[in-house]
Design goal:
Length: 268
């Protein structure tokens, strides 16, 4: 087995690329009264990062040309059609690509992992699939109806979204700690394990300290913007500028308190 690995040093990447090729598992051809032919099909491919088989539903339209006796393709569009829980779906402005935020939980739901998956709507091929949780750039991606955002840039190579700030788990008091080392104790956040972190409440209980995040599809990387002023302001309704050079958003004051966002939309 090891000798085969030496022949293919990039066998993992090769297998990952090959597994992204979708395979048809079901299809049906519909002939209308006109010369339009519609083909409905279900395709399947393997998402190695998620360890799941993902299905998508593709609808293709064709037109029969009586003069040339040929069938011309008019267009094709694919959307996810699987049992894996998809949290957010966003189609790019041109309609050529679809980005999906998948969330996979373990048996008891205590541990969850989030994945970004980008597919080509015409061919159904997977363009990108990354484990967002495993990158540890930020916390949970926010997906509620108030603060959740998943917007394509105008050149369709980046995705803008909000996520919780990545916080180091706080520890409770321990008798074995070095109590004389005050700097180390501050880094460990000793005694803050059960400290209440205020959220925006009212169906936004998971929104506490959101930060601005951008997924670069071409580079397959995530950039975060966690500035000092974000401790005082929570961004909302984020949009791209026309030239993709910057973003614009509406800021909510975190003080005097965060509760009351949904039913108090006139707050300063």
């Amino acid at each position: 087995m090891s000798s085969n690995f030496t022949k293919f040093p990039n066998w993992i990447n090769l297998y990952d690329r090959a597994s992204r090729i979708p395979l048809a598992i079901y299809g049906r051809i519909w002939k209308t009264d006109s010369d339009i032919i519609q083909v409905n099909s279900i395709w399947s491919d393997r998402a190695q990062q998620m360890k799941k088989t993902v299905r998508k539903h593709r609808v293709s339209s064709f037109k029969y040309n009586h003069e040339t006796k040929k069938i011309n393709k008019l267009g094709s569009f694919a959307l996810p059609d699987d049992t894996t829980e998809s949290s957010i779906i966003s189609v790019c402005p041109s309609g050529r690509k679809t980005a999906i935020l998948f969330e996979i939980k373990d048996g008891n739901g205590a541990d969850r992992k989030q994945f970004f998956r980008v597919t080509d709507n015409e061919t159904g091929a997977c363009l990108l699939c990354i484990n967002v949780t495993g990158m540890k750039k930020h916390g949970v991606v926010i997906k509620d109806s108030v603060f959740g955002v998943f917007k394509w840039s105008h050149n369709e190579d980046k995705l803008l979204y909000l996520a919780e700030r990545q916080e180091k788990p706080a520890e409770f008091y321990d008798a074995d700690l070095e109590w004389n080392d005050t700097e180390k104790l501050a880094k460990l956040k000793i005694g803050d394990k059960f400290k209440v972190v205020e959220s925006w409440g009212e169906q936004c209980v998971e929104v506490k300290q959101p930060i601005i995040s951008i997924l670069d599809i071409n580079e397959e990387k995530i950039d975060i913007f966690d500035e000092e002023w974000m401790d005082k302001i929570t961004p909302e309704s984020i949009v791209w500028c026309p030239d993709n050079s910057s973003i614009v958003f509406f800021g909510l004051d975190n003080e005097p308190f965060k509760l009351g966002r949904i039913f108090c939309d006139n707050r300063p």
